[in-house]
Amino acid sequence: MLRYLLYTLFSGICFVTTAQVTPLPHAHSHNDYEQANPLEDALANGFTSVEADVLYIYGRLFVGHNMPDKKRHGLKQLHKQYLKPLYRRYKKNGGYIYPNYEQPFYLWIDIKFESKKAYQKLREQLYAFREMLTYYENGQLHQGKVVVILSGERPFKELLNDPLQLMTLDGRPEDLVKEYPAHLMPFISENAAKVAGEEDYTKVGLKEFQRVKTFIDKTHAQGKKTRLWATPEDEQLWEQLLGMGIDLINTDELPRLRKFLLK
Hints:
alpha/beta
């Protein structure tokens, strides 16, 4: 109990003293909602990208991976766990997620089921926070500090046909041939093993890394950024990926990646 209280107190202190946190442009919190303190831990460690799985249940958006029992024990709503806290921080810092940090903060929303209904509900909720968002309205850019990226069951038609695009889409390598504009599809993401062509990372060599480098270069050529998921928590691999130009490093071990990036 004492250990938990000390951890909570320390996390709270880190969250409040935002000026002392160094923002890390390459740091992505995979399945952030599974952290002890979702969003707060990521912000305390300087992360500039977080991911939340979302479930549409009876007209509400809950954060979680699998459909729960009827009582929905332990599930929190997206707007309470992510949207409201981010907006409070944005207002407190005078229009920034991190003080004077000009680059975007990425909020990835991985839709698990009912993508059309989830999109409409998410659009409704995001509208109230549009001041902090980067979005397009009738083709006009409104520059904010938070970019919302839809992953999982991506509602392509709904977003493409919407005159008010409060969200963007997470792309896949096969989307590169379609050449979607970078403002609509800012990232191309894929399973690391699929890109490398080798699931056993102890066997990854020059040929496999060249496949990863080719993926990164092709994506960058279209003005888009790159993310690989299911990568090992390994500093040597992180260093190699950064050397190849990866834009986000996926991790569940937030302090470990923070320490590595600050080295």
